[in-house]
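As a warm-up, study this chain.
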Amino acid sequence: MEERLAALKDGREVTLRSLAVDDKERLLTMFSSMSESALRWGMPPYTRDRIERWFAGIQDMIGVVALDGDRIVGGSMIFRQASPRRKSIGDLIIYLHQGFHGVGLGTAITKQILALAQEQGMHRIGLEVVEDNKVAVHLYSKFGFKTEGKLKDSYFGGDNRYHNTLIMGKILRQYQTVSITES
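Now compare it with the structure written out below.
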């Protein structure tokens, strides 16, 4: 993917580009500087080991980062499923630094990663999101993700309460089926 500028609602511009192997340290820096509220609905901790595991499978990932100067302020990844029975199916995650919430970065980065997924022939993208994360649920719905199910009390939050998780999905590419009738 070529670098592209994304204009945000507050007048700032960020650069969107594909995730690269040398982004590991900057991604770790982003996660380590994120506030508790920015990670409220995430799955911390985002340790060096966890990020190393993500990058160990970078060939099976579609990734987009948002940069403010040289600093990563947002990232989105689609992890492709490895099984042949899950061909062209992936799982989406998105994280934005708290300084970039509510300014359109989520929309810009989601639009970009879905375009890349489509270009790369992905069929279906799925995700899990905490039902109470209304901003994220709205974002995903805006891009055509549909709620496919609900896992009751499946996320233990920082508020020491259990929350429901929504399973959402979007079909990017329709395959035509052929029916054969007997004559």
